[in-house]
Design brief:
This protein has 109 residues and is an all-alpha fold. 94% of the residues lie in helices and 0% in strands.
Length: 109
């Protein structure tokens, strides 16, 4: 094999490799490209996703606000309960004192 044949054989091999690569690229591009109708649907889906994320953010903000309100209400209720329990304890103590006083009065009288 002389030099000219070697150059021609190498050129043919490179040309075939290039053609196979180009054909493979064309096939992959043909099967994977996004069509115009698909792009419109993708835009619609992206818009829907954006709206859903906004609604989620609004729901989370409302939930946090509502939780803060409820925690405040619970704190107030617990404070009222504590005051009521202290009042009840004082009333029981006073009632015991009154019973003792009445029993002493009946015992003396």
């Amino acid at each position: 094999m002389n030099r000219t044949e070697y150059v021609i054989a190498t050129a043919i091999i490179l040309l075939v490799a290039f053609a196979m690569g180009w054909f493979t690229h064309w096939i992959l591009h043909r099967f994977t490209r996004v069509k115009g109708g698909d792009m419109a649907e993708m835009d619609k889906l992206a818009q829907s996703l954006h709206e859903a994320e906004e609604l989620r953010d609004q729901a989370l903000a409302y939930m946090e606000q509502r939780e803060a309100e409820l925690m405040n209400h619970i704190s107030q209720t617990e404070a009222e309960l504590k005051a009521a329990m202290e009042g009840l304890r004082d009333a029981r103590h006073e009632a015991e004192e009154m019973r003792g006083y009445i029993e002493r009065m009946h015992a003396n009288g």
